[in-house]
Design a protein that fits this description.
The chain is an alpha+beta fold. It has a single domain (11-149), classed as Nucleoside diphosphate kinase-like domain (Alpha-Beta Plaits). Helices cover 38% and strands 17% of the residues. It has a four-stranded antiparallel sheet with strand order 2-3-1-4. Bound molecules: inosine-5'-diphosphate and magnesium ion. Inosine-5'-diphosphate binds at residues 65, 70, 74, 104, 122-123, 125, 128, 131. This is Nucleoside diphosphate kinase. Major role in the synthesis of nucleoside triphosphates other than ATP. The ATP gamma phosphate is transferred to the NDP beta phosphate via a ping-pong mechanism, using a phosphorylated active-site intermediate. GO terms for molecular function: ATP binding; nucleoside diphosphate kinase activity.
């Protein structure tokens, strides 16, 4: 395939991005949102939310991590203060958001990524991003209520897509 053909096959996806309590407490909300905004993806949902402990424990969100030794700490961490819940849409947004976020362990995250620039520990890695388009849809449905995700057309769209 020619690169432009491959690029045109990547689909419009949704990613659930969440600024974790450390990002909010450290005053990094604007900095983190601006990195996604500048990339040219579309913000469709945004709210500050205090996640209740019961919800975090039963929540489908971290279901695959329930058996891990760090799970209780993860629940304490994620419920320790408000988080910023976001829904972002764009072509290939799931993978591109993960690249902007960087590796799970901030010590392995490249400079220029959010975790590489702004964090030092896996247990305080400031931001979450969906790991597949399926999980993007699933997590947005989990964290947002009906009517909280907005469909709209940014005026800059012709300047982002040819
Ligand atoms: P990801 O956030 O990069 O997708 P996952 O493996 O899905 O990484 O883990 C989810 C979250 O669980 C991580 O972002 C981190 O906050 C926490 N976590 C993962 N592994 C560890 C660990 O070994 N110690 C403490 N926290 C961890
Ligand atoms: Mg993950």
């Amino acid at each position: 395939f020619l690169p432009h053909l491959v690029a045109s096959m990547v689909e419009v996806e949704e990613s659930y991005i969440m600024i974790k309590p450390d990002g909010v407490q450290r005053g990094l909300v604007g900095e983190i949102i601006s990195r996604f905004e500048k990339k040219g993806i579309k913000l469709k949902g945004l709210k500050l939310y205090q996640c209740p402990t019961e919800l975090a424990q039963d929540n489908e969100h971290y279901k695959d991590l329930q058996s891990k030794s760090f799970f209780p700490n993860l629940i304490d961490y994620i419920t320790s203060g408000p988080v910023v819940c976001m829904a972002w849409e764009g072509v290939g947004v799931v993978a591109s958001a993960r690249k902007l976020i960087g590796a799970t362990n901030p010590l392995n995250a490249e400079p220029g990524t959010i975790r590489g620039d702004l964090a030092v520990q896996t247990g305080r890695n400031v931001v979450h991003g969906s790991d597949s388009p399926e999980n993007g849809n699933r997590e947005i449905a989990l964290w947002f209520k009906e009517g909280e995700v907005v469909e709209w057309t940014p005026v800059q769209e012709p300047w982002l897509k040819e």
